Amino acid sequence: MQGYNEEDYLLLSGIQHYNFCRRQWALIHIEQQWEENVRTIEGAHVHRVADQPFIREKRGDKLIARALPVHSRQLGITGVCDVVEFVRDPDGIPLVGEEGLYLPFPVEYKRGKPKKNDSDLSQLVAQMMCLEEMLGCELSQGYFYYDEIKHRVEITVAEADRERVRSALKDMHHYFQRQHTPKAKTGPHCASCSLNPICLPEMMSKRTVASFIESRLME
């Protein structure tokens, strides 16, 4: 089975950054730059509950694993699932040390509420594809838990969703291998981006550098 070598793996979480803004992803994952803002701090707080590595909890016919490491050689990614619920199912797979068969369902914790774009969805789909490859099973459902609305949202994944993930990761590997940071595609999302002071999206507009510097001095 062909695929990527481990030294070429990208972080699974980067696909959300990439779908939000390709330049943001490159600044973080290629140039290794990062800035905290209220959104990233809130996001870290939401994950604190889920990210308890090596903890497994049994609840009836459900086994809950937190901070579960996953990877995919085919996609060339590695990362961690916030929570994976293994639910007993006759169509499932065997688990070491457990009786019966189980199907895994990833649960991704997010701050805020469901987004209109597919940046969150692609991250969940990538997790599912990793689990399918690692465990030799087929999955069609996963979940988000959004902190703002305080409940989980069930997601049904189609082949088109998987294809979008494959396409995005192919482009990400291409950028990473070239060590190329794309130009910013400016928009309303720039205002909430934690990397705004580093990215300086204003410089990507039609204004000249001189007018940009002048406006900054006037501030």
Radius of gyration: 19 Å
The total count of strands amounts to 7
Tell me about the biggest sheet? 7 strands, mixed
Q: How much helicity do the residues have? A: 25-40%
Task: Please give the count of helices.
Answer: 7
Give an overview of the whole structure.
- With 219 residues, the protein is α/β, with parallel strands linked by helices.
- Helix content is 36%, strand content 26%.
- The protein has seven helices and seven strands; from the N terminus they run E-H-H-H-E-E-E-E-H-E-E-H-H-H.
- It has helices spanning 14-20, 22-29, 38-50, 119-135, 159-178, 196-199, 209-218; strands at 10-11, 56-59, 62-72, 77-94, 101-110, 141-146, 151-156.
- Strands 1, 2, 3, 4, 5, 6 and 7 form a seven-stranded mixed β-sheet that branches.
- Helix 1 packs antiparallel against helix 2 (22-29).
- The longest helix is centred in the C-terminal third of the chain and has 20 residues, at 159-178.
- The chain is globular.
- The model is unreliable at 37-47 (pLDDT under 50).
Please write out the topology.
Blueprint: E1 10-11, H1 14-20, H2 22-29, H3 38-50, E2 56-59, E3 62-72, E4 77-94, E5 101-110, H4 119-135, E6 141-146, E7 151-156, H5 159-178, H6 196-199, H7 209-218
Parallel strand pairs: 1-4, 5-6
Antiparallel strand pairs: 2-3, 3-4, 4-5, 6-7
Helix pairs in contact: 1-2, 1-4, 4-5
